[in-house]
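Lecture notes, unit on binding sites. The following record was shown on slide 14. It pairs a sequence with uridine-diphosphate-N-acetylglucosamine.
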Amino acid sequence: MKKTILITWWTGYIWSHGVVAFEQAGYKTVIVDNLVNSSKTSLEGIKKILGYQVDFFELDLRNKDALREVFQKYDFDGVLHFAGLKSPGESQKEALYYFDNNIWGSMSLFEVMNEFWVKKIVFSSSANTYSTQNNPPIKETDIQDTTNPYGTTKLLIEKILRDLSNCNAFQVVNLRYFNPIWAHSSGNIWEEPEWIPNNLFPFIFKVLTGELKELSVYGDDYKTIDGTGIRDYIDVVDLIDAHLKAYKLLETQKENIWYNEVFNVGTWQWLSVLQAIQAVEKVVGKKVNYKIVDRREGDIPISYCDTTKINNRLWFQAQVSLEKSIENMWRFYTHNQK
Ligand code: UD1
């Protein structure tokens, strides 16, 4: 019989891929989402790929009673917990809103999981939980500290889960994402942010399609190869593969015995902003209109991770080349042009 997994999914883009990957790997998935930052259109995309509809419930995790009803309907084996607001910039303006959503939403989920004796959980954490004092490549053992409320919510939830492992026999894998970039090669899953994107790649593509005039490159005076910021970009297909492997790791653990593990999820390949622009220009064959402006407040110069632990323990290795990611993203942006 198929194992059933609950996916908490407030922002959609990553978990559309996750749902497809877990269904294709033989699990039954059930999605809960309050649709604050996403829409049901990704469900249509998922249906086109899978050929059937997945079970979906529109609910807010903080609504414990509604959540209980879902837990009553299914015999969940475990949970993939992605739900949460995810913009560091926004979180600085809306700290209490972030704490309320991310912390209380998670607390309510953990409480209901515990009531129904569902203990396995893969938690989507973030590179935002690392202190800016660390020297890249960042290791899992490096110092954790945060610079914004979003990061603080992720760090606190990691700590809560650590205690729930100790006290309530939760079995936990925390995945600290570096910079996910996303598009699905089928062309069917896509969730276009309605607002002007903050992230580099979506911005570059919107400039290329003519929707935005030019890209602002935030600073060229960092101590990096060309003065621009360096990041570790990981394709969403690889990111989801890490989740599948993380879940399988949980399945190898003895029932009712606590477990808590953490992995960086990145590629260890770093890329500057100018290198990213050049890579896109090469694949797409068009020039990106950009100008150098001042540094963006709160940006760190260099962020990339040491992937030794996830490579060795989960046998995980990022597979999708940057060129392939760019091709897929470009297909989406042109596919979505009216
Ligand atoms: C942001 C989030 C982080 C999230 C990550 C991936 C912040 C502080 N952090 O990180 O939590 O995990 O996205 O979703 O927002 N850049 C430009 N021009 C632009 C946009 C970006 O030059 O218009 C530069 C940035 O200065 C940076 C690099 O591109 O050097 C990547 O930026 P971005 O995609 O926003 O990611 P992060 O800042 O790493």
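Take-home: The chain has a mean pLDDT of 92.
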